[in-house]
Amino acid sequence: MSIDSIKAALPDYAKDLKLNLSSLANDITLTPQQLGGTFVASAIATRNTALTHALVAEYGPKLTPEALEAARAAAAIMGMNNVYYRFVHLVGGDYAKMPARLRMNIIARPGVEKADFELWSMAVSAINGCGMCMESHEQQLRAAGMSTEQIQTAVRIAATVSGLAVALEGVEIPA
After folding, report:
1. Where are the transmembrane segments (predicted)?
2. Of all helices (H) and strands (E), which one includes residue 10?
3. Catalytic residue among 21, 41, 130, 141
4. Could you say which of 6, 14, 75, 133 is catalytic?
5. Is 130 part of the annotated catalytic residue set?
6. How far apart are CA 116 and CA 26, in angstroms?
7. What is the pLDDT of residue 6?
8. What is the pLDDT of residue 78?
9. Is 133 in the active site?
10. Which CATH number do you get for residue 27?
């Protein structure tokens, strides 16, 4: 399965998503590692198996094994953190003062540059809708010297991949 098979499977009403996928796949504001990892982490966050397989097949070979593992780790750890911190943010009260007591060691030692991992975590947090996490990752990215355009690109990738997952629900994808 490839990006081309994903594009071919998209219904006519998803033409904008197809065009966005094409332009973002060739984006130059991010490094190749940042771009590939953002696509992979975002796809995993959508929980759409076909889309995840296609994007891992496309970008996995372009990433080091460590970067591919870190993109997967960003999706996994944010899958946990986004639920917890969204709860803390929305409910308020004493929860914000309490320690999370959830292991998050991968964030401190992701196996790639910290900014790349933060970028992938930002994309996943955008898909999962955790405002508290997005604010935290955006601050970390800005402190690491990333531009607003680079951060926006990662979120545009996340938005497009999320839209692709929705458009592909129930659609037969050619092999």
Report:
1. none
2. none
3. 130
4. 133
5. yes
6. 18
7. 87
8. 96
9. yes
10. 1.20.1290.10
